[in-house]
Amino acid sequence: MENNLKPATWAKYHCNVIMNDTIKCQKCSNILYLNKKNNLYCLTCNTEIDQFYIKWKCMICSKEFSSETKEYNPFIFKIIKVTVKQTLFKGVEAKPPYIPCCKIAREQISSYKFFHKKECNELLYEGEMDNKKIVVCSKFHMLNYYYNYYWLCPICKKRYKLSHEYSNANNNNKSASEKNNSNSNINIDTIENNNRIKQKSINEFSKKK
Ligand SMILES: [Zn+2]
Ligand SMILES: [Zn+2]
Ligand SMILES: [Zn+2]
Ligand SMILES: [Zn+2]
After folding, report:
1. By Cβ atoms counted within 10 A, which residue in 70, 87, 93, 189 is the most buried?
2. How many structural domains comprise the chain?
């Protein structure tokens, strides 16, 4: 019996979504684990699948994608969960600074409603994680960084990403006091990288043995 299996999550979800969930078995909806062969394994129905073989359906754009999977890190996902909660609690609607495709004056953007996709009717909210602005869909609790987010034009429903200029402006505009607070914020990327390095050295170590 393999009892020290780790729950799996996507290494890189489609549409730059920062996913805060484990991968579920497509047969029985229970959590999938990464086993020793680095395959996805369901403890409930014993299904074993090659992680590169599965096509997932993106919750944002509905396109199919494949992704490497990684170990679900409860600590990181707790941070994401708390951030989503705080963002929804604050209730500040997320709006892009501009719309490139349709002629909408910047002053008018605030009068439009923004959703993550056509079929979703729950608003997007803005918050902050790791000192960067984030967007959260209040229905699916999906989280993206502003600079990485694919906005949906409310008129023609085309998707677009903000230019670098706007993405960087968000970080440069911060006041000194906010910057000083950054030490108390947890850098998700750093944690993830450290974990990867740790995991790599463990793998290499066990290979040598
Ligand atoms: Zn997508
Ligand atoms: Zn299953
Ligand atoms: Zn448009
Ligand atoms: Zn949504």
Report:
1. 87
2. 3
The answer on 80 and 61 residing in a single domain is: no
* Residue 180 and residue 121 share a domain: no
CA atoms of 147 and 166, how far apart (whole Å): 8
Q: Nearest ligand, CA of residue 99?
A: 3
CB 120 within 8 A of CB 59: no
pLDDT tens per residue, the chain (209 residues)?
456 789 999 999 999 999 888 999 989 999 999 999 999 999 999 999 999 888 999 988 889 999 999 999 989 889 999 999 999 999 999 999 999 999 888 899 999 999 999 999 999 999 999 899 999 999 989 899 998 999 999 999 999 999 877 766 555 444 434 444 433 344 555 555 555 555 555 455 555 44
Q: What range does the domain containing 15 cover?
A: 2-72
- Residue 118 CA to ligand 1 center (angstroms) comes to 13
Q: Which ligand is nearest to the CA of 119?
A: 4
Q: Are residues 142 and 172 in the same domain?
A: no
> Within this chain, do residues 137 and 122 fall inside the same structural domain, yes or no?
yes
Interatomic CA distance for residues 111 and 132, integer angstroms: 24
The protein residues having their C-beta less than 5 angstroms from ligand 1 (an ion) are: 14-15, 58, 60-61
